[in-house]
Design goal:
alpha/beta, Rossmann fold, N-(1-d-carboxylethyl)-l-norvaline Dehydrogenase, domain 2, Single alpha-helices involved in coiled-coils or other helix-helix interfaces, 3 domains, globular
Length: 452
């Protein structure tokens, strides 16, 4: 009898199955679409012929991990699967599902005396094979059933802890994963903008930029994505023998988690401008070339390497803080028991965001979200301003860097501008305004243009 059933033997599913087997877990697989198997798995572990066959091979209470395409395919599989399951069995959705879908599916499972866990998994194929970060959401009983099977295969941090954590109700796990992905969007866009500044404004070669990113990889604001950027720049194209980066079409894809996160942030009333800029920047790539704007200058505005790093570092910190503050707001709004420090700890290894910054944030967040950005971090503001000035004069688009600076400047009370907006609202809509010098809500009798 198998300990766990795994539905969906594509790239991620097959990798997770092999990871489980390496840790002594008996696996039985099932692929509803045989042509979707990442590679032949015969001999690695048993593969059921159909769902009834899969269910009969599992030890009760049965645990079934689904790695199928998010959306209707998940609902269809749950509907088919639940007909063969028994009370107390646990369905785990390990795909990139919307957190509201997870909440709905959990309620449906309860109505059938089943348990449901929404499990965010990050790390790509390599992470799935050798240790991902896992963000679970479900009832305490259901997570206790799956934890002995899944926690041992999660990534291990330098202090020996596993990157598997229970974040509360069924929707919470996929919400945390959604925010992880939105932060990922933000950091990727920041790195793309640094690449653009170095290449187009600084006149640096791909190999020079690869060395730059490689030199940052192990620093506080380095990490997996920085290291990956260096690898991308060093990759040789097997078709032309030149740099592959020069042959990749500049059109960025997206699967939806970034858009979901921005919508959720709006619903929570949270400002996440860097995350939003990253999502919109990807959308804009499909329209590239519609307008031709001549470069403002043919001269190279070379930013010193350390200035670029300081600008990137502060923008990256602002990106992470926006995502974490969104989690804090969701905790309050949904009454979830999310521990922000625990979120940072789970992201320290295995996932796409992994890097030294999360070690720092895991400590800071013990003091709450307001401790995420410390005053000394703002020493990078002059560098960020200078880099943006150079981008403007060199006609390089840097929406995420600009959004990060605007976010940080907007948190300051030194040079506010919102009083103009509130004045406008009262002038045309009688919405009222607060005053600086006394409490209450006020309305002015605005003079008309004719009165002037």
């Amino acid at each position: 009898m198998a300990d766990i059933g795994l539905i969906g033997l594509g790239v991620m599913g097959a990798a997770l199955a092999r990871n489980l087997i390496d840790h002594g877990v008996e696996v039985c697989g099932f692929e509803p679409l045989a042509d979707q198997m990442a590679r032949p798995v015969t001999g690695d572990f048993p593969v059921a012929a159909d769902l009834p066959d899969l269910v009969t091979r599992l030890t009760p209470p049965r645990v079934i991990l689904m790695m199928v395409t998010a959306g209707p395919p998940v609902d269809a599989m749950i509907s088919q699967l639940s007909a063969y399951l028994s009370p107390g069995d646990v369905i785990v959705d390990g795909g990139n599902s919307h957190y509201q879908d997870s909440q709905r599916r959990a309620a449906l499972a309860v109505s059938k005396s089943l348990s449901f866990v929404g499990l965010g998994i990050s790390g790509g194929e390599a992470g799935a094979r050798f240790g991902p970060a896992m963000m679970a959401g479900g009832t305490a009983d259901s997570v206790q059933i799956i934890a002995p099977l899944l926690a041992p295969i999660a990534a291990q941090t330098s202090d020996g802890s596993r990157c598997f954590s229970d974040f509360g109700p069924p929707a919470a796990g996929h919400f945390v994963k959604m925010v992880h992905n939105a932060i990922e969007y933000g950091e990727m866009q920041l790195l793309a903008e640094i690449f653009g500044l170095g290449k187009y404004a600084g006149g640096q070669s791909n190999s020079q930029l690869a060395e730059l990113f490689a030199s940052w990889a192990d620093r506080t604001y380095g990490g997996y994505l920085v290291e990956t950027s260096a690898r991308v720049l060093r990759q040789v194209d097997d078709q032309t023998s030149g740099d592959l980066i020069d042959q990749i079409a500049p059109v960025a894809g997206q699967k939806g988690t970034g858009r979901w996160a921005i919508t959720a942030a709006l619903d929570l009333g949270q400002a996440v401008p860097t995350l939003a800029a990253a999502v919109f920047a990807r959308s804009l790539t499909v329209r590239a070339g519609e307008q031709h704007i001549s470069a403002a200058s043919d001269s190279h505005a070379i930013c010193p390497a350390e200035q670029l790093y300081d600008a990137f570092a502060l923008a990256k910190l602002a990106t992470y803080e926006q995502g974490l503050r969104m989690l804090a707001a969701a905790t309050e709004h949904h009454k979830w028991p999310l521990d922000l420090a625990a979120v940072a700890r789970v992201w320290r290894a295995g996932c796409i965001l992994r890097g030294p910054l999360l070690e720092t944030l895991a400590i800071r967040l013990e003091g709450g979200i307001d401790a995420a950005i410390d005053d000394p971090d703002l020493a990078g503001l002059p560098a960020l301003r200078q880099v943006l000035a150079g981008a403007a004069t060199s006609a390089v688009s840097v929406p995420a860097l600009a959004a990060s600076l605007s976010y940080l400047e907007g948190l300051s009370e030194d040079r506010p501008t919102a009083q103009m907006i509130q004045g406008q609202r009262d002038a045309f809509g009688a919405h009222g305004f607060a005053r600086r010098d006394r409490p209450g809500v006020f309305h002015a009798h605005w003079s008309s243009a004719e009165d002037r």
